[in-house]
Amino acid sequence: MLTSLRIIFMALLLSGIAWSVETLTPETYVRLNSQARKLTMDGMETRIGLLKNGASQEEQLAAAEQTNQAVESLFKSYGTTGSLHTAYGTYHQEQISAWLEANPVWNQTEVDLNQRFQALSSQIDVLLKGQ
After folding, report:
1. Are 92 and 27 in contact (CB under 8 A)?
2. Does the pTM of the predicted model rise above 0.70?
3. What whole-number distance in Å separates Cα of residue 85 and Cα of residue 92?
4. How far out from the chain centre does Cα 39 lie?
5. Per-residue pLDDT averaged across 9-37, rounded?
6. Which helix or strand (DSSP H or E) is residue 33 part of?
7. Contact at 8 Å (CB) between 42 and 67?
8. Taking each helix axis from N to C terminus, what angle separates 82-91 and 93-102, rounded to the nearest 10 degrees?
């Protein structure tokens, strides 16, 4: 009985994962990735403000949790999760790269997001070292 339940559970889990990954395409992957990164960087900017104002660790953790919830809600709105989104990106890297090459505006968006992320990360590092 227990073995049968495990088999049924695994089948349901795998079918859910397959359905979720199938809802992504290179285009939806890039669009979702862009939106998730923007939300993440908004959270980074919030953290920078908190660090500059001497916020407590608890306040920083609460802000980080809000950002995480916003990102997870975004993934859910696309019918996926952060983990499945990452898996899609890993297994479909060539198709995503080809889509970005065919869509230079989105390719530039990715470049801009990378630069913004690096700048925000550097700011956070400087502020943390100054504590």
Report:
1. no
2. yes
3. 10
4. 9
5. 73
6. helix 26-52
7. yes
8. 80
Q: Which two tokens mark 41?
A: 């960087």
CA nearest neighbour of 44 among 24, 69, 64, 26: 64
Q: Would you state the structure tokens that stand for residue 3, as one six-digit string? A: 């073995």
Burial category of 46 from C-beta neighbours within 10 Å (exposed 0-12, middle 13-18, buried 19 and up): middle
Cβ atoms of 127 and 52 closer than 8 Å: yes
CB-CB contact of 112 with 106 (8 Å): no
Q: Over 80: is that where the pLDDT of 15 sits?
A: no
Per-residue pLDDT at 8 exceeds 90: no
CA distances for 99 relative to 27, 31, 102, 107, angstroms: 7, 11, 5, 9
Distances (CA, A) of 18 to 2, 24, 45, 119: 24, 10, 35, 36
